[in-house]
Amino acid sequence: MRSSAPAKIRHLLLFLGPAMIGMVVFYITPFMTSLVISLTEWDGLRRIGIGSLPRISGFGNYREILASEELRRVLGNTLSFVVLYIPLIVVASLVVALLLERDRPGVVPLRVAFYLPVLTSWVAGAIIWRWVLSPEYGPVNAIIGGLGLPEPGWLQDRRWAMPAIVLASIWKDMGFFGVILLGGLQSISPAIYEAAEIDGASAGVRFWRITLPLLSPVLFFVLVIGLINSFQLFPQVMIMTENAGPQGATQVMVERIYTYAFRYYEMGYASALSWVLFVIIFVCTVIQLRMQRVWVHYGE
Amino acid sequence: MASNAQARVRGVAFYTAATLLGLFVALPFFWMLSTSLKADGALIVIPIQWLPRNPTLDSYTQIFEIFPFGRTLLNSAYVAAATVVITVASCSMAAFAFAKLQFRGREPLFGVVLATLMIPQQVTIIPLFLVLRNLGLINTFTGLLAPSLFNGFAIFLMRQHMRTIPDDYLDAARIDGASLPRIYLSVVMPMSVTSVATIAVLTFMQAWNDYFWPLIVLTEERMMTLNVALSRLNGQFSTDYNTLMAGSLLSMLPIIALYIAAQRYFATGIRIGGIKG
User: Fold this and answer.
1) Which of A14, A16, A232 best tests the B interface by mutation, with the highest count of B CBs <10 A?
2) Which of A29, A185, B255, B257 is the most exposed place for a label (fewest CB within 10 A)?
3) Inter-chain contact A127–B248, Cβ cutoff 8 Å?
4) Domain map of chain A by residue range?
5) Per residue in B57-88, pLDDT tens?
6) Using omega within 30 degrees of 0 as the cis cutoff, is the peptide bond preceding A235 cis?
7) What percentage of chain B's residues is helix, strand, coil (to nearest 5)?
């Protein structure tokens, strides 16, 4: 659309102004500023009169982080989340999608049920799970004990704290990824299945040779987002475990950033941590994008 | 083609898998409801009471006594509604400009909008907090709400939709003497209802369920949103599970109501761009 030059500028300011000011002030500027802060030692308290001015420390924070025992522990914890969460969430959400796809009686309440955890806030969900996984008074251990199996200490046990977080995360995310995969399933043309059936392909063959390859772009999306989420665990850890679990078993990146910035007031160190996290997520995503050529199937 | 026996096996497999996963999903909700109806003494008994033996609504009154819970409900409602209004207004206008106005640098600028989607919140949150504090905006809703002026995903989604509106409609309105703001309000917005409603619903849910940002900005009890209040209660009354469960259940109700009323838009929203769901 065309209009006279001054009117055009007025209109652009009107329509783009608020959002672009928001973008620059609340996203781009803080993004760059945090890089600068990460190169300093600063408690950030100056304005209320007791703090110190930022002191430039170059890459000191980064050197300290990379050499720290803590980073290794945090990445190890994240890794133990990832190796459980990623395979489980892919399988669970695939099963959810396959369940919801059938036109069988009872599928509508099932759809609502799977979606309830997605609607629930993580805070409520995590409080509920803390209680569900109570070693003595929770229903999960009551069932496990009833079956005669050894009852895990869950959040109070160093080895079980992270699996407990994984369990709650699967519960929370399964419906979300399930609905996304369902969209993928429904976009596969029935004609392909019919053709395969006429050629005598069994249900198993149809699943492995048709459904999975045609679903791979959506599975790829689930993997990318699932992995990004794995690095950004926060509310579940904060609420389900006190002080990041027994012996720091549930210390993770975002929890560390929060703790350093808003409990210890080490703004420089926390900002550097956030950049380390950003780089890790970025690199993982790029690697996944590269790998998709190997296994993701696009087009008919 | 499958024989009857095969079909029956698959039917059994379907219902077994559905039941197991269904129980997994339902157990925490059931336990929340059951616990919220228990008296204090019924919480720590062995064997556990699956159903409360003497059900009571005490926890639901107690949560309003130990914490200004009514106030936090109102705070959450206000914050979520205001976030929706600000995001929809600001981002739909920007989406309109990116979809329908010609100007130099439009595509590169839109590229910048998309690039912001890659910035994780944890990176911006520290400087944002420091700026708000220097402006005296900590513990204010203004500070909490200000960043919702911009939402890259919302702009992207609404722009994609607005681009599909044929220019003929806009030209016709123009020939009738409509100004650009009028065209935006009376032609483009009504024709973009689906994407605008989708963004409104997703934004409401996100704002209602948000935790990290309000945790940092709102530290005074009277300003707290539900989630911040619940997490505070979780720390202070960590063994009063009946009260905590009552609070959690109450916090879920508005979102469930919204979901029932606007199910269609949830589904579209999740399907088009799960990223922010």
Assistant:
1) A16
2) B257
3) yes
4) 1-37, 68-295
5) 989 999 999 888 999 999 999 999 999 999 99
6) no
7) 80, 0, 20
